[in-house]
Amino acid sequence: MLKGFRDFVMRGDVITVAVGLVVALAFSNLVKAFTDSVINPLVAAVQPGTKFGLGWQLGDAGNKATFVDMGAFISAIIYFIVFMAVVYFLIVLPYRHIQKRRGVTVFGEEPATKACPACMSDIPEAAKKCKYCASDQPAAA
Question: Is the whole-model pTM more than 0.70?
Fold first, then answer.
């Protein structure tokens, strides 16, 4: 039962979708922080005025609706970078290593290929013929 679960989880498409969802989650946090901390105060500002720090007060002093909070946005960027580094080092690298031992290339460049001269299917550049065309050749006497 556990072997079947492991095989299901280790399928390439499941891991790829999981990593995509994690990236989307982290990116959505970044976008939310940008809109909440930068865009919303710009829209809510009714009178010009600035107060420097990690943000600017665009309206009445102390009014959170008109405060451009760059500190929160910078922390969201840092969160995104740290989060993606954790995903890369704890999920992508071990998965790439396991799949490499299985002979499968994931999250990287595909190896260079060329066309088989006999059947025109894709083969590695170093190969002369694909395994099917090579097996059609009669044995040398």
Answer: no
Q: What is the pLDDT of residues 32-74, one digit of tens each?
A: 888 778 776 776 664 455 444 577 788 888 777 888 877 778 8
Are 49 and 70 part of one and the same domain?
yes
Domain extent for 20:
1-108
Could you tell me if 71 and 115 lie in one domain?
A: no
CA 127 to chain CA mean position, Å? 33
Task: Tell me the sheet residues that pair with 54.
Answer: none
For 48, the 3-state DSSP assignment is coil
Q: Which helix (DSSP H) or strand (DSSP E) does residue 122 occupy? A: strand 122-124
What are 125's two structure tokens? 């550049």
| CATH number for the domain harbouring residue 104 | 1.10.1200.120
